[in-house]
Write a structure and sequence with these properties.
Layout (H helix, E strand, L loop, with lengths): L1 E3 L6 E3 L9 E4 L6 E4 L44 H25 L1 H7 L3 H7 L4
Antiparallel strand pairs: 1-2, 3-4
The chain binds zinc ion (ZN).
């Protein structure tokens, strides 16, 4: 900031941070001493209202001749929804049965490899 000596009007450029909170200054020309108070900081400016976002440009409509030529078929209703569901249930039951069969068929190696499995067979009454 620019500071003028009150006595001889000599001008000095002083960084504002050096006189923040007030500082005793002495003019090098006339030896006058005075206390310079930092200028009161300007009141905080109110936050500028956020500018509304500019509307995004809407992409131009696609000319009709560039659109996909194949009309989209509406999804066809499944003819037999019950059949697929029954097949899924059957497959699940088969998988479970296969797993149970394998557990029983390989009881000895399973128990040998993983001793806690013996408790499972005890629960199943197969021990
Ligand atoms: Zn002076």
């Amino acid at each position: 900031m620019r500071i003028l000596c009150p006595q001889c009007q000599a001008a000095y450029d002083v960084p504002e941070r050096l006189i923040a909170g007030g500082r005793l200054l002495r003019c090098v020309k006339c030896r006058h001493e005075w206390r310079e108070e930092a200028e009161a900081p300007p009141p905080p400016a109110p936050e500028p209202a956020p500018e509304p976002e500019p509307p995004r440009p809407v992409p131009p409509p696609i000319p009709a001749q560039h659109r996909a030529h194949q009309p989209i078929d509406p999804p066809r209703p499944s003819r037999r929804p019950g059949l697929a569901l029954a097949a899924a249930w059957a497959a699940s039951a088969l998988a479970l049965a296969g797993l149970a069969t394998a557990l029983l068929a390989y009881q000895a190696p399973i128990t040998a490899a993983w001793p806690p499995a013996a408790r499972l067979y005890v629960l199943l009454g197969k021990a």
